[in-house]
Amino acid sequence: MNTTVSSSRSRTVLVTGASQGLGAAIAGAFHRAGYNVGLSDIDEEGVCAAARALDPTGESAIGLALDVREQTAFEAARDALVARWGGVDALVNNAVVTIVRPVLEIAPDEFDQVVSVNLRGTFVGCQVFGRYFKERGVGRIVNIASLAGQNGGTATGAHYAASKGGIITLTKVFARDLAPFGITVNAIAPGPLDLPSVRALVPADKLAGIVEGIPVRHLGSPDFVAETAVHLASAQAAFANGAVWDINGGLLMR
Ligand SMILES: NC(=O)c1ccc[n+]([C@@H]2O[C@H](COP(=O)([O-])OP(=O)(O)OC[C@H]3O[C@@H](n4cnc5c(N)ncnc54)[C@H](O)[C@@H]3O)[C@@H](O)[C@H]2O)c1
């Protein structure tokens, strides 16, 4: 049903992989900042629950099924948000598949699976919304990369790390080519965050060693990363473009 819902909120964002973890934190931060939020995920039930947790009325937050590998899924989500709230101002590419496996044990098919969600998904999102934002003459894209994409990673697989490195490169290409159309594209590269995914993937004893090796001696705050995404998506962030915003406790300084 293409019914524009009246909302006192003037800006709208689409966040991918928003049913849990950092994506849910990012959706929450945008919602607190006054945005209408389209939360999307391959897990439709989970993302609809996450949207209801932000706004049970559905007036300012909705859940959308979106597999980031599919161009048509991004286009459908874009159209749904435009129909509902009149336009989209920002996209956050956050969805991820994370697999921990030694490099010599990664099957080529598993490599493809991870790269397809993480890198192709970000490419497709940037392209679909790049075209849309170009038409509007303004737009903001924030890609969630990772420290692993800069240093090869510590507790993750080569497919994950390589996909995150690719996201950093894609960010620069889209940032350069879309800038003349009023669009900025930035990446955030977090180090290990205080999230369930980290505790699920890294055994407790190994995690303690990782934390010991972080100069600030603690895991990162997902909410701070989320607020950084909001900052980069603001109308005022017009001169921040093509940058990789390191939030890693000092693990990588450059
Ligand atoms: N957790 C960390 O410490 C950390 C550190 C650096 C970067 N990051 C980045 O933060 C982001 C979120 O990480 P997280 O730990 O919250 O992950 P997570 O695994 O908790 O959540 C990922 C979400 O992506 C969704 N997803 C998976 N495949 C999808 C697809 N094909 N289409 C749409 N959605 C799909 C999942 O259903 C899930 O909801 C990722 O980009 C990750 O690389 C996380």
From TrEMBL:
Pfam families on file: adh_short_C2
Keywords: Oxidoreductase
Source species, domain of life: Bacteria
Domain Ketoreductase per the UniProt entry, residue ranges: 11-191
Family to which this protein belongs: Belongs to the short-chain dehydrogenases/reductases (SDR) family.
This protein's name: SDR family oxidoreductase
Organism of provenance: Novosphingobium decolorationis
Origin organism lineage: Bacteria, Pseudomonadati, Pseudomonadota, Alphaproteobacteria, Sphingomonadales
